[in-house]
């Protein structure tokens, strides 16, 4: 209201700034207008800049732009504050928001500024405000004036994000195609490649989900378009991210399969399989094979060549199993359909290798023999019969009798006829005679011994089954042992169920030794079964011998370590401390079992502590910490015993700190008292840090005990504070002192109460059973369960 013009203007400007800062732009505008219209000083440009923003905030865009342009012009005059940088920075947003981009371009051209870069900044600003349509419009305008590929790529990358968030997938596809073209030219930065990869993967996943879902099932053309776009994106990704090429090829195939483009799907699965095989990655290799087989199941008119390729690929990865059994037979039929009899025969041989006792081979042999007969190739027919008689192929007894030609000794022929008729006793006599016959061949004797083992097994005679199994395997070569390994494994199981544990283990031991030269699933199972059987009988020495054989035969190290762990536990049960200690150190270096060894290290610490062997206690304690922190780092499970023991060690540190706190007593004079107070509070802080370390172990007992120590220590210090009275001081001094000092005590008491509450919550939430629980239960729970190694939990009726 002053009449002084200068004061009036300054007051108006000041009040306008207050409203501006309070975002009350409509109140600020008239004050700025009146003041700036009457008076001009060097701050006129800065205040007008604020006025322009006020216009913008109330949607008066033309006024805002006009004012900004005026500020820019006047800023050239040295008598005003130079606001040109701020105008160049902000006016672009005004042009873009008001849809006056061309006016903005003209402005930037006039002042010789790279307007393309400014447009990019404007677009980014609009995008950050969630104004996707306006931002995209600015980006499209910028593309018309872009000067170089670098700027164009930056704009495209921003557009991709807009189109993805707005679900404008057709536009996204067009821009993605352009950005991918620049990628192929090597013009994208690492960050831009990551952005492109992210956009492609995200949109491809969305499109694939839409293709697979029910929404577009009836909209075939749209569904097809989405599938093709997803496939295209997966194709781009397979070139961008070579580390995941097989995954993207697989996703291409899955998408094509979803829309029943079976020919394309098969080709994509095939491509995925080839790439995965070259890279040595098994997961997508197997999945692509499953995909090819799924295509063949859905597409009955698939070419024979495609069927053969898929079947051969499947068998190369999984040559044995229920599915492989069927695939061999289908592959055989496809080769027959192509008149490729050599490959059909090869397929039969592979089938027999993995299914030596499967009668399906009989039909295959019959088909090939029929072809030989039609061709007049009697030599091949005789060869087939010879192979059948020597046991290369398995056919039914009925088929053998029909052929009536066996190329083994007459004795074997007679015995097998007896066996085929179910005359087991006669067969046994025949096999025994064969073994005594000096003219019998080695091969015949091996067959006889094996068949004796099998017959005694069928007749339920474990002792003779054991004897002849070992005798047969002693003379058999690897291929024979492997061929009959299933039978020997069955005999070993039979001996085990007959309570002949050592005999069962011996058969398994022998099987491992004979299969040593090559990898075999039977060998691994025989190794584990034999080792555990030896240990069940307490035969540690034989178990160790078997482990030596396993190492020589390159049995998987994890299997060997499992057995060595059980050997170590057996030494513990036998109280063989020397060997127990030896295996502890050995298995502490295991890549898989080191966390389980923690309990055994604790056993040794307790044992050596009992006999006051300080050196070994120190060594094993050091090993304990090494294994504990290694297990924690690698997120390995640690037993409750291990956690409790580690926590108990850390709790000792807490207890020592608590004792130090108790030992320190408050006393005057005031300087001494202040130092004592500081020391106690510092130790309480240290105690809380120690408690955090204990609680980090995860030990329930440790957690509750740490809360107990915290609660006791904070409560005790609080009590000391409440009870402390400075000696030799006046009542007024003492009253003032107690008032201040009791506040500290109340704070400590409050913290103690908080710890008590946290302890109760921890007990209830984690169901912790600890002696210290009673400390926090206010004597409500009075039942205690004393620890005992051989206790048995029973219900109220005395039942277990």
Report on the architecture of this protein.
It is a single chain. By secondary structure, this protein is mainly alpha-helical. Helix content is 76%, strand content 0%. It has 39 helices and no strands. The protein has helices spanning 5-21, 25-38, 44-57, 61-74, 84-97, 101-110, 115-128, 132-145, 149-165, 169-184, 190-212, 220-240, 245-258, 262-279, 282-298, 304-317, 322-337, 341-354, 360-375, 378-389, 397-403, 410-420, 424-436, 442-458, 462-475, 478-483, 485-497, 501-514, 521-536, 540-552, 557-573, 577-587, 598-610, 614-633, 640-663, 670-696, 700-723, 731-766, 773-776. Helix 9 runs antiparallel to helix 10 (169-184) and helix 13 packs parallel to helix 15. The longest helix has 36 residues, at 731-766. The N and C termini lie far apart (96 Å).
- How much of the polypeptide forms β-strand, as a percent range? under 5%
Tell me the distance between the termini: 96 Å
Which class do the helix and strand fractions yield?
A: mainly alpha
Average of per-residue pLDDT values: 83
Shape: flat
Count of DSSP strands: 0
Blueprint of the fold:
Elements: H1 5-21, H2 25-38, H3 44-57, H4 61-74, H5 84-97, H6 101-110, H7 115-128, H8 132-145, H9 149-165, H10 169-184, H11 190-212, H12 220-240, H13 245-258, H14 262-279, H15 282-298, H16 304-317, H17 322-337, H18 341-354, H19 360-375, H20 378-389, H21 397-403, H22 410-420, H23 424-436, H24 442-458, H25 462-475, H26 478-483, H27 485-497, H28 501-514, H29 521-536, H30 540-552, H31 557-573, H32 577-587, H33 598-610, H34 614-633, H35 640-663, H36 670-696, H37 700-723, H38 731-766, H39 773-776
């Amino acid at each position: 209201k002053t009449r002084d013009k200068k004061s009036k203007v300054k007051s108006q400007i000041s009040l306008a700034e207050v409203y501006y800062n309070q975002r009350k732009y409509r109140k600020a505008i008239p004050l700025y207008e009146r003041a700036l219209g009457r008076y001009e000083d060097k701050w006129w440009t800065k205040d007008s800049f604020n006025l322009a923003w006020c216009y913008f905030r109330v949607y008066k865009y033309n006024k805002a732009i006009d004012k900004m342009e005026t500020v820019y012009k006047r800023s050239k005059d040295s008598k005003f504050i130079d606001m040109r940088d701020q105008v160049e920075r902000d006016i672009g947003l005004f042009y873009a928001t008001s849809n006056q981009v061309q006016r903005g371009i003209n402005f930037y051209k006039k002042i010789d500024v790279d307007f393309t870069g400014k447009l990019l900044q404007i677009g980014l600003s609009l995008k950050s405000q969630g104004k996707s349509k306006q931002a995209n419009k600015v980006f499209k305008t910028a593309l018309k004036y872009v000067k170089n590929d670098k700027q164009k790529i930056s704009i495209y990358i921003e557009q991709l994000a807009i189109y993805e968030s707005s679900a404008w997938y057709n536009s996204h596809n067009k821009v993605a195609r352009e950005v991918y073209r620049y990628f192929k030219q090597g013009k994208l930065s690492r960050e831009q490649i990551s952005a492109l990869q992210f956009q492609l993967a995200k949109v491809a996943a969305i499109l694939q989900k839409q293709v697979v879902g029910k929404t577009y099932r009836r909209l075939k053309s749209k569904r097809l378009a989405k599938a093709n776009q997803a496939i295209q994106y997966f194709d781009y990704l397979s070139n961008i991210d070579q580390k995941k090429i097989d995954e993207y090829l697989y996703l291409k195939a899955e998408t094509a399969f979803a829309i029943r483009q079976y020919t394309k799907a098969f080709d994509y699965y095939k491509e995925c399989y080839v790439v995965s095989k070259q890279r040595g990655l098994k997961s997508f290799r197997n999945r692509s094979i499953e995909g090819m087989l799924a295509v063949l199941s859905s597409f009955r008119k698939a070419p024979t060549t495609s069927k053969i390729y898929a079947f051969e690929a499947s068998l190369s990865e999984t040559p044995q199993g229920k599915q492989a059994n069927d695939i061999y037979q289908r592959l055989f039929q496809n080769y027959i359909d192509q008149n490729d009899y050599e490959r059909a025969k090869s397929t039969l041989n592979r089938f027999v290798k993995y299914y030596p006792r499967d009668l399906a081979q009989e039909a295959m042999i019959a088909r090939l023999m029929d072809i030989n007969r039609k061709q007049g190739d009697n030599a091949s027919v005789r060869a087939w019969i010879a192979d059948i008689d020597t046991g290369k192929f398995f056919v039914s007894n009925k088929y053998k009798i029909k052929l009536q030609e066996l190329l083994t000794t007459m004795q074997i022929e007679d015995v097998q006829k007896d066996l085929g008729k179910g005359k087991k006793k006669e067969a046994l006599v025949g096999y025994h005679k064969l073994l005594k016959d000096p003219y019998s061949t080695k091969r015949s004797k091996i067959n006889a011994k094996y068949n004796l083992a099998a017959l005694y097994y069928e007749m339920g005679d474990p002792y003779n089954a054991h004897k002849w199994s070992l005798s047969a395997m002693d003379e058999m070569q690897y291929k024979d042992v492997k061929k009959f390994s299933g039978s020997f494994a069955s005999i070993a199981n039979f001996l085990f169920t007959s309570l002949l544990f050592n005999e069962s283990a011996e058969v398994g031991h022998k099987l491992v030794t004979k299969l040593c030269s090559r990898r075999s699933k039977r060998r691994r199972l025989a190794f584990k079964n034999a080792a555990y059987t030896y240990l069940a009988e307490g035969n540690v020495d034989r178990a160790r011998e078997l482990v030596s054989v396993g190492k020589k035969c390159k049995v998987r190290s994890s299997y060997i370590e499992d057995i060595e762990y059980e050997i170590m536990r057996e030494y513990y049960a036998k109280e063989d401390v020397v060997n127990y200690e030896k295996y502890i150190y050995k298995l502490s270096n295991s890549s898989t079992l080191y966390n389980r060894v923690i309990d055994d290290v604790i056993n040794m610490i307790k044992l050596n502590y009992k006999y006051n062997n300080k050196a070994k206690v120190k060594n094993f304690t050091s090993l304990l910490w090494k294994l504990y922190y290694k297990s924690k780092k690698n997120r390995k499970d640690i037993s409750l015993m291990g956690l409790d023991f580690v926590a108990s060690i850390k709790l000792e540190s807490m207890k020592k700190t608590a004792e130090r706190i108790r030992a320190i007593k408050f006393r005057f004079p005031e300087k001494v008292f202040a130092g004592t107070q500081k020391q106690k509070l510092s130790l309480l802080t240290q105690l809380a840090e120690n408690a955090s370390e204990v609680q980090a172990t995860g030990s329930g007992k440790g957690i509750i005990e740490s809360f107990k120590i915290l609660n006791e220590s904070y409560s005790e210090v609080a009590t000391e504070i409440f009870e402390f009275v400075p000696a030799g001081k006046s009542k007024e001094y003492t009253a003032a002192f107690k008032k201040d000092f009791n506040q500290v005590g109340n704070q400590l008491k409050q913290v103690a109460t908080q710890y008590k509450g946290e302890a109760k919550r921890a007990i209830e939430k984690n169901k912790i059973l600890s002696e210290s629980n009673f400390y926090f239960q206010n004597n409500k729970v009075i039942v205690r369960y004393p620890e005992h190694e051989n206790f048995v939990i029973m219900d109220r009726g005395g039942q277990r």
